[in-house]
Amino acid sequence: MEQEVQVNESLRETAHTRAAAEKVKPVEENEKINKYKELDQVIRLYSKEPGQLINILQKAQDIFGCLSEEVQSYIAEKTENPVSEINGVVTFYSLFYTEPKGKHTFDLCLGTACYVKGAQELMDSLKDLLKVDEGETTKDRLFTLKSTRCIGACGLAPVLVVDGDVHGKASAGEITKIIQAYRKGEKIEGTKH
Amino acid sequence: MKVQSIEDLKAVKEEYLPLIKQRLGHRNGLGSTQVMVCSGTACTSAASQDLRNGLQLEIERHGLKENVKVFKTGCFGFCQNGPIVMVHPGEVFYCNVKPEDAKEIVETHLMGGQVVERLLYRNVDNQVAQRMEDIHFFQAQTRIVLHNCGVINPEEIGEYIARDGYMALAEVIQKNNPREVIEAIKRSGLRGRGGAGFPTGRKWEMAAAQDVRPKYVLCNADEGDPGAFMDRSILEGDPHSVIEAMAVAGYCIGASQGYIYVRAEYPIAVKRLEIAIEQAREKGLLGKNLFGSSFDFDLGLRFGAGAFVCGEETALIHSVMGQRGEPRPRPPYPAQEGLWGKPTLINNVETYANIPAILRNGWEWYQGQGTAGSKGSKVFSLAGKINNTGLIEVPMGTTLRTIIFDIGGGIPGGKKFKAVQTGGPSGGCIPEKYLDMPIDYESLKEIGSMMGSGGMIVMNEDNCMVDIARFYLEFTQDESCGRCTPCRVGTKRLLETLKRITEGNGEIEDLELLEELSFDIRDASLCGLGQTAPNPVISTMRYFKDEYLAHIKDKNCPAGVCKELLNFVVDEEKCAACGICAKDCAAGAITGKPGEAYRIDPDKCSRCAACAAKCPKKAITRGPRKEEIINGNQGIRPGTVSPENRAAL
Amino acid sequence: METREFAPGPLVQKTGQLYDNPEKKVEKIKLTIDGREIEADKGMSVLEAARLAGIEIPSLCYLRHINEIGSCRVCLVEVEINGARVLQASCVYPATDGLVVHASSPRVRRVRRTMVELLLSDHHRECTTCIRNLNCELQNIADNLGIRNIKFTGEMKALQVQNENSFIVRDYNKCIKCRRCEAICSKVQEVNVYSALNRGYDTVIAPAFMQDLSQVACITCGQCVIACPTASLTEKECIESVWEALEDPDKYVVVQSAPSIQVTLGEVFGYPVGTVVTGKLVAALRRLGFDKVFATDFTADLTIMEEANELLERLEGRGKLPLLSSCSPGWVKFAEHFYPEFLENLSTCKSPHEMFGALTKTYFAEKEGIDPKKIVVVAIMPCTAKKFEASRPEMGTGEFKDVDWVLTTRELARMIRQSGINFHDLPHEDYDTPMGIASGAGAIFGSTGGVIEAAVRTAYYLTSGQEMDLVDYEELRGFSGLKEVWVELKGRRIKVAIAHGTGNARVLMDRLKAGEQFDYVEIMACPGGCVGGGGQPIFGTREHKEISLDYRHNRADALDRIDYSKELRRAHENPAVKKIYEEFLGRPLSNISRKLLHTYYTPRGKLPGFNFGGIKGSHAGHVKENIVRSHTT
User: Fold this and answer.
1) Per-residue model confidence (pLDDT) at position A6
2) Gap from C216 CA to chain B (nearest CA, Å)
3) Which of B508, B503, B478 lies closest to B492, judged by CA?
4) In the annotation, is C522 catalytic?
5) In CATH, what number does C122-235 get?
6) Structural domain total, chain B
7) Among candidate residues A68, A92, A116, the one where a domain is terminated
8) Contacts C216 to A, Cβ<8 Å
9) Do the domain assignments include residue B27?
10) Cβ-defined contact of C73 to B488 (cutoff 8 Å)
């Protein structure tokens, strides 16, 4: 418990210096401290078992939206792992991001079944429509375009997943509609994955 | 209540048996009706959970709650036609059921006693099939591993027990003769279902022979092959079969802790596993002193975070320990030095799922099925250019023709079969001439492919085999861990060469380079990923050399897939000069004026095919690049301009 | 005196290259390689067995007992398994009785060539202008395999070279991902700077976030440089700056060479490992145009005087015990990063070359009547960490840096070649006086255990007034990773510990942390001490067999020979040292000596870029600067 208090104090301290440097509003600062508190709990929970680093990183990504250098370093410090190792693990697995994603994520399945049913052409038109490359986020931070390996809904190929909603048997025309809808702030119902 | 003896287990079985009996067609089972809603990933993606809620609501609305029960169940395998709903008694099998159909099913079938015929499946001969057994897709299948999928609710351990679940574990513990169990598995002839087909019993024996403690039991549920979803379906539909098998393995090798390494991309499977482990613990089937013995066994879940190579056992071990999932050289084998340096038994999901069946029915029974070298059944996921995409289980030795044409329903749209790819990125493409070959581990290997985990992707004449090889290489190259030279750099160079060919820059020497490099990568790589990465190249070069030559010599992609080799032309005869194509062309490559056929500038054309899709007259067609040269870059196929075309608009 | 060596445990295994016990009884096996039956020890790999029998198998990623990962695939051999000939990485494939191996079959040669061609297809091949030209393992293997053209063309990486620090340059474009740097840094040094990042073709072996080494908890020891088979990791060269100083008529350029240089420089010019070339070294330095050629051994003696007195002072209750030696700048930085709570235990003595610089620009300048502004001090060091040390702001008076340029042994060799000096023909010359006079105690600073032995010799004299029998102290030397010895001083038994390689230091420091009592501790960052320093010659083209033998032993033996051969073997007997105290410093730990010869330390934290409440006030400037960190790649 004592340790925890200390952690948060030092965090606040860090946050203050950063806030001064980056002119961050105090509200955001508090939010950040809360997120780190949440991460502390995750680390405490999982540190009991060996080999839970990937789990901790996954949870940290859920909390912060991505694994920034600061978050990675924090986890290194708290789990007593070298930061190089943490960074090595983060950059190895494709489910970890170091940059924040856009408001909506388009995951186009590029598994074989989807590929032979024309997913690559869909990817090309998505790139065209969103003006981004695979793995990138649009300038307005609205969309992130990604490809994913087989989600196993091969019967619905080709499959586009938008924020977890599955759109099966997707076509170029449908994709245009989906993008337009999300741009307007609407949403086209897929089905929860 | 904790299960502490076989008697306790039997009591649980009796409790749930009536439910199961009815589902198996015993009409004397229950008075009430049961509605089974497929809750596998494919059906869930097609809104089967909305449908389930809808059914529930309708049932409550009509006051049928007491007499009609709705259950989740695992994958029936008929994914193309999902969501699937099955109604007992009567085993009525509904396909393509939408949430809005709930009302009709409840009112017409459950209340009116009339089968909703429009939701029934129609075989190719247009015959209505009311029950599963009437459907061609199911007729040639044998369900050993999948025998609970579609029958039980995977979120209720009692239903698994009612199917004699955990009986094998109970007997193993009671007999207290691990050696005999290992011997039975050896004799059954079961081989690893994850890839190379190593005899499972020998693996167990090796792990059991180690003196070091503790030992670990691992389950490889990192099903990474694109287009393969057998393991996922087993975990979603029958998670306890894996848990039971792992406990048996733990007992036999002397381990009391196991881990299931499952892809984080499989949220439903993860959830079902969590529920199953929790229920098994509650029942005392995991934890301390199983069946009143001194044997302890518990399971933990570990999640893959998106790395195909973690399907390799040493890489998987590193990943379970929270490290980069990089493989290491063997020996030492995991059975000698695995997790945290301790002896570790690793099998994949489907392999484990076979164990309870073998122990329940005896190794003689299991050994009686399949071919000389490959026993039992194999689950395949069928996908690609095939009518019945889905999950199937057939005896080893079934021919590809039976699988693709009888079960799979053949190729849609009257197209011609070209090849079937088995074994995922590690496998090869099998041409038509081998369709009648009975498939098992050896035969597939002989023709340059492999069993792999059981993905089968069917390709038709519209698929370019060079492009398919490139696709797989892109995959393995992307998933290479980067540790050893041949895989890290070699697959990159292989891919670059393939890209050159598909982009029309290939030279005839490239074929030799591809072949040599492929063999060197295969022979020199550190782990299975690298060793098998060139298989798609080797097999397509072996069977579809003409396509490679067409790309290189003629600068032509016969299937019309490789964009850089394509040329879009306007058929002067058909063009109505409406200008829709020009308006929609993002590249600004199409020009023309009223009264004259439009033209596509091949230099500007990005080959997106948008124009071809938009053209109301279907006047824009794709052809090989060659034509471009013949026509002197005009972007038009000359013909007589038909005046009625102009007039039509 | 009691001596206790640690039982061979993980430490010995970890750095087994240094500590294999040749007398250990092992079971023998027989295997056949290329039709020849050879004998090997059970437990050896095929590669080891082959090399032992004089069969050369090329390898790149293999470092015995340190990096046995079988990943470069250059050491592939055909092994007969069930009648089939299967390719296996010989570095990790166990040699077993009756094994049949083909180590030079056409298939093996062809596949090896493919492997090396693949590596070369992703390697910036600027051999003729490369710092490792003619001393590169990759180049050597390519030559041995007869590679005349590279079949493969394609993307080649073009990442920015990282050289924003004063000690080590990282060129990712020459990296072949052998991971020897990673292995030595994590398994031997336990500093864990490097990890593989990304995967597949994009893999890089880099510090976290691909930062420059100056931005991470790197101790600058340079073991990664020694381990690197190519020029992906090299020292930051400063030869040109030294040439400039030498050519400038207004500058008075003083050079000092560290004790171990005299036993390693010869290797570069083809002398057997362990040849003492002191006289030629001095002659070469003189011919390069240095105005004075001095020996750091002299200030090593001085360091002993200061440190022995510091020890006695602390034993009397003034200051913290144990006293931790501070002459290895890699170790000092290690302590600053990982054991900041022990910084008060560190001896405040600067390392000898810094003391030397400080005295050159004060005592020597005054004595010779030279304007200190005109003096340039060049240090020839076995070390990359000394490059970093010289750049520390506290190492100088504010007006001048104590040491202006630090050259590694390798850089000195390059300068000798550049100037056209034929090293073999050089006569033997002596160091200049007075700062070239040194005792044998100064010389043994260059290998592990030497500092403590030298200091104990003097402390014994200082407390008892008698000289101690020198033979008694041999237990302090030797290459065991960690040693503990009881010594009688002033009627009191003091407990002394010696560790080399920061991995071993970590074990020792953790024991200190756990409350174990020691009085005096010597730690050298590099395995073996300075003889194994990160600035020492690299064997890029020698036969691998020779590399796997431990050359550090021979170097250390040579230093011992220097010590034994000297009449003057105790620092306090050094007349030049006596004189400098008489004329300038007064006495050890006097005010002036504290000002010039002593320093202070800065806690740095494990994550220099971030401050999560680990260490407060750590390099404040550093932290701030790193809030917004820019990437070079």
Assistant:
1) 44
2) 21
3) B478
4) no
5) 3.30.70.20
6) 5
7) A92
8) 83-84
9) no
10) no
The residues, any chain, with a CB within 8 Å of residue C7's CB and separated by 6 or more, are none
Q: Is residue C190 among the annotated active site residues?
A: no
**Tell me, what's the ipTM?**
0.91
Whether the predicted pLDDT of C617 surpasses 50: no
Separation CA B329–CA B484 (nearest Å) = 10
Q: Are residues B59 and B78 in the same domain?
A: yes
Inter-chain residue contact A93 with B45, CB threshold 8 Å: no
The answer to whether the CB of B230 falls within 8 A of the CB of B185 is no
> How far is Cα C31 from Cα C83, in angstroms, rounded to an integer?
16
Q: Which is nearest to B484 in space by CA: C543, C92, C55?
A: C92
Contact C222, C157 (CB under 8 A): no
Task: Give B479's Cβ-side CA count (13 Å radius).
Answer: 29
Domain presence at residue A99? no
Q: Which residues sit opposite B458 in a β-bridge? A: B384, B420
What is the CB neighbour count within 10 angstroms for residue B209?
12
In a domain, B263, yes or no: yes
Residues of A in contact with C193 (CB under 8 A): 84
pTM for this predicted structure: 0.91
Candidate from A6, A14, A76 with C-beta closest to C611: A14
Select the more confidently predicted residue: A111 or C594.
Answer: C594
Q: Which CATH number belongs to the domain containing residue B570 in this structure? A: 3.30.70.20
In a domain, A143, yes or no: yes
Catalytic residue among C386, C387, C401, C483: C386
Chain A neighbors of B308, CB-CB under 8 A: 149
Q: Does residue B141 belong to any structural domain of this protein?
A: no
A29 & A85 share domain: yes
Count of domains forming chain A? 2
The fold for domain C239-597 equals: Rossmann fold (3.40.50)
Q: Chain C within 8 Å of A10 (Cβ-Cβ)?
A: yes
Give the active site residue among C45, C90, C328, C347. C347
Structural domain of A150: 104-192
Is C197 touching B (CB cutoff 8 A)?
A: no
Q: Is A154 one of the annotated binding-site residues?
A: yes
Residue A150 annotated as binding site = yes
* A114 marked among binding-site residues: yes
Q: Is A98 inside a domain boundary?
A: no
Residue at C113: amino acid letter = R
Q: Which residue in chain B is spatially nearest to A117 when comparing CA positions?
A: B384
Q: pLDDT (tens digit, 9 = 90+) per residue, B67-76?
A: 899 999 999 9
**CB neighbours of residue B130 within 10 Å:** 16
Average pLDDT over residues B368-378: 94
Domain of residue A154, CATH code: 3.40.30.10
Q: Which of C244, C247, C394, C543 is catalytic?
A: C394
Q: What is the CATH number of domain C29-118?
A: 3.10.20.740
Mean pLDDT taken over chain A: 82
A vs C, Cβ pairs < 8 A, gives 83
Catalytic residue among C530, C548, C573, C618: C530
DSSP B217-250: EEEEE---STT--HHHHHHHH-HHHHHHHHHHHH
Our answer to whether residue C39 is catalytic in this structure is no
Domain-located, residue B558: no
| Closest of C278, C269, C552 to residue C410, by C-alpha | C269
A66 among the known binding-site residues?
A: no
pLDDT tens per residue across span C468-513: 765 555 566 666 788 888 888 777 888 999 999 999 999 999 999 9
Contact C73 B513 (CB under 8 A): no
Residue C4 confidence (pLDDT) above 50: no
The pLDDT of residue B366 is 95
Which residues on C lie below 8 Å from B520 (Cβ)?
110-111, 114-115
Q: Are B70 and B103 within one domain?
A: yes
Q: Are B228 and B381 in contact (CB under 8 A)?
A: yes
CA distance, residue C46 to nearest chain B CA (Å): 13
For the stretch B322-342, pLDDT in tens is 999 999 999 999 999 999 999
| Same-domain check for residues B478 and B531 | yes
On whether both B549 and B567 belong to a single domain, the answer is no
